[in-house]
Amino acid sequence: MTTTKTISITPAVGTWVVRAGGAVLGESSRALEMREGDLPPVIYFPREDIGMAFLDATSHSTSCPLKGTASYYSIMSKSRTYENAVWSYESPLEAAAEIKGHLAFMVQDGVAVEQV
Predict the structure, then answer these.
(1) Candidates 3.60.21.10, 2.170.150.40, 2.30.130.40, 3.40.50.300; correct CATH number of 9-115?
(2) pTM here?
């Protein structure tokens, strides 16, 4: 038996902030919440609400049959570099078209995405 994953994208309620290495990278009241199958929801921030000076594009990429090809960025904080901790779909497939121009962050030790 095969289960089909579906994507739903809705406005994320409230204001969201992303921090790395103790610094605030961005804050947005225009973030999107993506739900994909049974996976935990992911918050996507509009690129213009993120301090892009903290991010460094990498050559890493991944492919998703529902969203397309993701490009990655590392976060450069004072204390350390978080390799490939940010992803973006520059040309998402139709099912995920709304996340174009948005960035998502891999929550890990030192990187937090929180509703404020």
Answers:
(1) 2.170.150.40
(2) 0.94
